[in-house]
Amino acid sequence: MASEGRTTVGRRCFLALVGSAAAASGCAANAVQPAPVGDVPAGNLSSLTPGTLRAVDGQPVCIARDDKGVYAMTLTCTHAGCDIGQTGSVSPQGLTCGCHGAQFDTNGAVLRGPAPAALDHFAVTADANGDLTIHGGEIVSQDERLSVNK
């Protein structure tokens, strides 16, 4: 019997609502972590002009340069863990995962799902000769850049 001002919900309807909410929250909370990588040689700074975004051969990482400096990101899609460098595309226009169509901007932010989270960024260093190293064990802010002289 329903009291005045209250609505009763049938058992099936209640279970459907609870199940939908659980599924929706589970998808958003379960972003896949980047594939483990150590220190990765990423070429020389002289070959990385502003506007460059490219995969590093044989590794699930990419290196990029914008007007703020040099940065690196994982190529492990946060949806299902696919290697975007192997199954998708990496270009100065952005990244697309070939497994399920997720799209990311040049800084790794999600433009189109099903990816639930942005791509992680890794620390980048350069030696005295300008040789770049991506430090895959060191996740940094998406705003962090290796500063370079223009």
Describe this structure in words.
The chain has helices spanning about 10-30, 85; strands spanning about 40-45, 55, 60-65, 70-75, 90, 95, 105, 110, 120-125, 130-140. Helix content is about 15%, strand content about 30%. The protein has about 150 residues and is of the alpha+beta class. A hairpin with a 2-residue loop joins strand 5 and strand 6 (about 95). The strands form 2 sheets. Strands 1-10-9-4-3-2 form a 6-stranded antiparallel β-sheet, with no helix packed on it. The protein has a 4-stranded antiparallel β-sheet with strand order 5-6-7-8. The model is unreliable at about 10-30 (pLDDT under 50). The chain has a domain at about 40-140: Rieske Iron-sulfur Protein (3-layer Sandwich).
Helix-strand blueprint:
Blueprint: H1 11-29, E1 39-44, E2 53-55, E3 61-66, E4 69-74, H2 84-87, E5 89-91, E6 94-96, E7 103-104, E8 110-112, E9 121-126, E10 131-140
Antiparallel strand pairs: 1-10, 2-3, 3-4, 4-9, 5-6, 6-7, 7-8, 9-10
